[in-house]
Amino acid sequence: MWPLSKKEVHNLDERKIIILDKSYFWKKTYKYDLIKQKPHDEQINFIKENILKICNKNKIAKHFPVLKFVLSEMGSYSKRANYQIKKGVPIITLAINFWSDDLPKAIIHELAHAWHEKVGGYYTLKNEINQKLKYVLWKKIRPKKSFYHFVNWRTYLQDFFYGMIMEGLASYIEHDETDKIILSKKQFKSFEGEAWAKAKSFLLFYERKLLTSKNLDEVKENWERFTNLKNSAQYPIGLHVVYTLVFFGNLSLEKIAKMKFYSLLKKYESIIISNKLGKPIVSATSGRGVLDYKRMINQSLMYYNKQVK
User: If you average pLDDT over residues 137-166, what whole number do you get?
Assistant: First the structure.
């Protein structure tokens, strides 16, 4: 029986890198029982080598005096990696079943999230706004049995727009650290094309499926598809927004990380319009974007009001 976890501490340029190996996976026996089994050393060593290599070279990693990595079996339903911050220390959990050449990108992506939180407190702010929103809606919405339907809808839209900025910045840093992003009109068009396609698919489903649902139960039936579209659209749309701010707006990543939600989207929108780059893909309140935060929120409220009459 191996220990429940194994801790390693590595010192890099007066920075401390902690790796906690809590990995195991479930294996079926010939009798279909489930037993815990330790991964191969080669697999664990591959992950550790990537962690140390990135922490030694990555600019974002060097912002933190202490970084903690947890190797864990996360299950097929989970993300390949995720992060949290406790007492100022980023804790990045990596799935041992995620063992491929994309591992460095996953590590850098989560480090970028941690850096964004450190610089701008964006994740904390998003959660605080969600909690305040739920409190306000709880006091206003009747009947209560429909409350969770509408709150889920409203907070999902909010998560989509706020998460778009988080994932966009992390995706930009991930691409730049691994592939070196080229600032050019050709690259802008490439990112814009991907973002445009995702935005149109998301909007089409939102307006033609959710907003035309016969009742809230039908909305619930379509929720999984809506969630999948939301999750897949955040990355390319967010990357397009951040790329636009960097390339045409000459903004540094740190400046972008410190910007608040409305200020950032309004800046993006003004850059698109002033440079005659076409229609903004997203907007906050102007209604100009393919996806407009205020318009979509109002659409959800109008739909809800019809359902509860």
Answer: 77
Q: Are 206 and 277 in contact (CB under 8 A)?
A: no
In whole angstroms, give the CA distance from residue 81 to residue 159.
19
Angle in degrees, CA 126, 131, 134, rounded to 5: 125
| CA pair distance 24, 29, nearest whole angstrom | 15
Average pLDDT over the chain, rounded to an integer: 86
- One-letter amino acid of 133: L
Q: Is the pLDDT of residue 150 over 50?
A: yes
Q: What is the mean pLDDT of residues 156-164?
A: 91
pTM of this prediction?
0.87
Q: Where in the chain is the domain with CATH 3.30.2010?
A: 6-120
Please give the Cα distance from 286 to 292 (Å, whole number): 7
> Regarding the domain delimited by 6-120, which CATH topology (the fold level of the hierarchy) does it fall under?
Zincin-like (3.30.2010)
CA angle, corner 292, sides to 290 and 297, nearest 5?
135
Rounded CA-CA distance 169/66 in Å is 22
CB 192 within 8 A of CB 275: no
